[in-house]
Amino acid sequence: MVEKNVIIDVEPGLQARPAAQFVQKANSYSSEIFIEKDQKRINAKSIMGLMSLALARGNEIKLIADGPDDQEALEDLASFVEGT
Fold this sequence. Notes:
Blueprint: E1 2-7, E2 13-14, H1 16-27, E3 32-37, E4 40-43, H2 47-52, E5 55-56, E6 60-66, H3 70-81
Antiparallel strand pairs: 1-6, 2-5, 3-4, 3-6
């Protein structure tokens, strides 16, 4: 299991199109992937869960991945969230 705290730096945050793109990326990995914010943990492969967090640009979240490709998934998703 790997974890990383990241600051959202995509406009307008993880809402609408960026949220859909994030979930699509997350679903391309076999690892379990979660996002934690304010002690609430959601499955990062669920668009409804992601939208429930209402993640705006500048919010800090924790990405958590556990599985055979967890390190690769974490790096790819963190890069996407950080806008790099």
